[in-house]
Thiolase family protein (Halorutilus salinus), 396 residues
Amino acid sequence: MAENDAYIVDAVRTPFGKEDGVFKNTHPQDLGAEPLKALEERVGFDPADDIEDIHYGCVTPKGEQGYNIARLLPLVAGWDVDVPGVQLNRQCGSGQQAVNFAAANIRGGLHDCVIAGGVEHMTREPMGSDGDFGSFSETYTDRFDIVPQGESAELIAEEWGFTREEVDEIAYDSQQRMAEAMDDGRYDSQLVSVETEVEREDDDGETVTDEIVVEEDEHPRPGTTKDVLGKLPLVFRGTDDGVITPGNSSGIVDGSSAMVVASGEKVEEEGWEPKARIVDVALAGVDPVMMLTGPIPATERVLESAGMSIEDIDLFEVNEAFASVVNAWLEETGAPWDRTNVNGGAIAHGHPLGATGSALVTKLIHELERTGGRYGLSTMCIGFGQGIATIIERVE
C-alpha cells in the first residue's frame, strides 16, 4: 500500500428525499451531519485525533446552508470543536470536487485523513436562489448568451440528432435499473437512515406531526413506462421542437453524502481496510452555452492521465442531469450503456446538487465491491461549461 496514495476507507449517503418530501422539516445542517455520524460509527475513528479537515460541496451556500456549512457539520454531529471544515462550490461537480481535493491533498502530503462529501437541501434553499440572470456583467453577456441548463440539454440533442425516443430510453432504463437495485438491496450497504418529522392531516382535519425513519430514496418511479414518458410535456421549449421533459431530467431532491479519504500510511497505522484507491482525477472546460458536454473531455483527460482506456473500466457513473447528456457521452466515448449507471441514475434517484458527485463515487465503490470489478469512473457535467472525472480502483 503506497504511503501517499489516497484511499477511500468507507463511503455513505443519506436517502434522497423529493422536493417538499420527507426531509421538508429537516434542517440542511442536520441532514449534512448524518453521513459524518455514520462514518464515525462504521470506521471507528476519533474525530479529534484522526480527521484533519472536512471538504463539503454545497451549490447554494446561503440561508440555512450558509456560514460555511462544512465547518458547522462536525459541530452538529457532536464532534470536538477542533475539527475544521471548508465549503466548496464547483456547482454540480461540488461533491466530486471535494473528493478530488481530498485526494490531491493526501497525495501531496498535506493531509493524512479527510472527510469529503456534500449536501444540498433543494427544498429549503432552492436551486438558483443564490443569484439571478440579471447578475451577470455586460462584459460576460457580450461574449456569451445566458441560457438555462435545460436549453443546453436541448442544444445537445439537436447537435447529436437525438430523438425523443432515444432520450426517453435512457430515462426508462434509469428507473427500471433503480427499481431492480432497490428490490435487490444493492443500496443497503451505502444508505444511512435519517430520523425526521413529517406533517399530515388526521381524520379530524388537524395537522399532526409524526416521527419517522427514512431508509430509502423517495424520488424513484418504478412504475414508469415508455408510454408515460412519451406523453410528458416539454419543460424548456413550449413547442414540439424539443425532447427534454420532467421524465428525462434529473429530480430535485434533498440529500447528503460523504466518505473517509486517507493516506496509505494512515490506513496501515489505524489498521483500516479501505474499499478503494483514487487512481486519477481530471477537469475540463467547454462552451458555457452548450455547457453540459464537459464529461466527454473530462473522461478523455482522466483516462489519458491514468494511462488507461475505456475498455479498462468496469463500471461508469455519468450524472443524469439530463438524458441527452448521457446519450452524447456514450456516443463520443464509446462506453457501453450496460456498464454505465447500472443501478439507476439521477433521473431515478435525483440530483441533490452539492452531494451528487460524492454520492456517485460512493455508488461506484459499493457496486465494484459487490460485483468484484476493479476500476470505476465517475463523471459529471457542470453549469457554465465544465466537466469533472474521477477513476477509482477497488482494493481487494
Q: What stands out?
A: The chain has a mean pLDDT of 96. The chain has 13 helices and twelve strands. The longest strand covers residues 253-263. Residues 164-183 form the longest helix (20 residues).
